[in-house]
Amino acid sequence: MKVAVVKESAPGERRVTLVPEMLARLRGAGLEVLVESGAGDGAWFADSAYAEAGATVVSRDELLAAADLILTVGQPDEQILGRLRSGQAILGMLNPLADPGLAATLASRGITAISLDGLPRTLSRAQGMDALSSQANVAGYKAALVGAAAFGRFFPMLTTAAGTARPARVLILGTGVAGLQAIGTARRLGAVVSAYDVRPQTKTEVESLGGTFIELTSVRDAGGEGGYARALSDEERQAQQAELADHIARHDVVITTAQVPGRKPPLLVTEDALKAMSAGAVVVDMASGPLGGNVAGSVPGETIVTGNGVSVIGAGNLAASVPGASSAFLARNIATLLLHMVADGELAIDPADEIQAGVVITHEGAVIHPATAALLAESTPAAGPPGGATP
Ligand code: NAD
């Protein structure tokens, strides 16, 4: 089987799906690796490094024509999508729960789609394949650095001949994988860190990293399925926003990471909360993306300064800005998953396998991932009587 690494084309995307170090493992399993020329440039992996590791470096045209399996970081770009042919497979963060339409398109075109974000993350044998966690770790680390760089004061307490600076007060909203890494990083920089999550079981993890867990009276436990948060009701959300606003106002840097799978991210920092913050404060919105974000007015990839001097940084894809580390992790996740799914050098699709049941979204012309298929069924209106006649 020919596995193809494309050069990513999304704005700001500097990651690459395989790094040269990972090629020996794949070749040992009978896979041939094709790399689009320049694919590793953004992460400082030269074509020559891939060639030395045994890959064939080719143009995009040659790559798409010859590939059996195409690896992408996120969803395929329009050019790849337009050229996929029946029988080919694609693997990446395809986000089928937020975009089931892409899955429907791929199924109708006879493409096998494998999505890294469907992995059953709590299975211990799947942990080496967990790209959501590996990329969230990188992003959480970078979020603390982005917050520190944009803040016009120190993170640590500093005593110098010119005076003493108090440590920055940092608040992390959402303490999943990214939030915990942001806490650890901000603590290592010397900040005083508080954190909040709707899943109160994260309190001990926050405390073990040296943070203070904030408990709200307005929302109790909002843990949902599989260790994720559930969406809050409108009333819960409003009460949470109002109660959080007082805490937000007391902090210098706020980093938000809250996500609910397949849904719009919850709004945690409202316009009123931003108005109550001090000039010079910084808010880093890691949930910022096309569906919205955790912070009112945040724009993906941009920094907005509010009228009262608060910098709101839309930072939804921070893993892409630490491309060496994030690509190395991602490549290991992808290679581990591929080796699990390959037999005799070919993809061996088996929806009965617990890992494959999570990641294989389309196969042999159908959407076989149950949650994605259910979303598509919901969005397709039931067929009416022939001719549209009403009884
Ligand atoms: P995520 O990216 O889906 O969300 C980030 C955080 O935001 C979560 O902690 C969530 O509770 C929180 N959140 C959602 N809505 C919120 C709101 N309204 N207010 C405040 N916080 C809100 O989460 P994730 O980092 O992908 O992790 C999700 C879960 O998966 C966690 O329980 C994590 O421990 C678990 N996990 C387990 C494993 C494993 O067992 N190996 C691996 C990875 C993740």
Can you walk through the features of this model?
With 391 residues, the chain is an alpha/beta fold. Helix content is 33%, strand content 17%. Helix 5 links the parallel strand 5 and strand 6. The longest helix has 20 residues. 45% of the residues are buried.
Q: What can be said about the biggest beta sheet?
A: 8 strands, mixed
Compute the number of helices. Answer: 13
Structural class: alpha/beta
Distance between the termini: 55 Å
The shape is: globular
- Assembly category: single chain
* Ligands: nicotinamide-adenine-dinucleotide
Strand order of the largest sheet: 3-2-1-4-5-6-18-19
Strand content: 15-25%
Radius of gyration: 23 Å
Helix content: 25-40%
Please state the average pLDDT score. 94
Task: Work out the number of β strands.
Answer: 19
pLDDT < 50 runs, ≥5 residues: 383-391
